[in-house]
Amino acid sequence: MLALLLTLVGAIGLVWLGRTAARLAHCHRQVTRAWEQFDVLVCQRNALLPQALTELAIPPARRAGLDTVLAAQESARRHGDPPQLATAERDLRKNWDLLVEEFGESNRDHSGVRRIEALDAAITDAIRRYNAALGAYRSLCRTPPGVLVARLTARGSYAPLEPSHQRERAH
Question: Which is nearest to 118 in space by CA: 106, 126, 129?
Fold first, then answer.
């Protein structure tokens, strides 16, 4: 009887750990997907920036700050450094906003400017989705079975992308 009870308790424990491992893997996939979506949007927007500045005939001297920040952001993105990426994203948007303020009304309606602003909004949403997925993942990792499973599976460490611009904080 005792052997049956111990076997039952052991089976329940394994099922419990298995379910926790499955939930942790699901949360990890959500974090990974959210990061990939964010990364794709940033790549699309960053590819459009130089093209739009060229089409708008912004002189190289005036866009030097944006080009420098763009290079810093690309480096942080490639290295998967969320804190540096958030800082670079904030600086990039600040530089872009300054350039947009200098545009005439006709240039603000330029298709490249509208696409960049639409991608900025999508990036803001992607940041929110990534942070939400990361919060759920971290929350599960803090539970007793989650700690055990997370240590056994050695999932990567992630950092949130803090709101980096007034647009993220406003929503």
Answer: 126
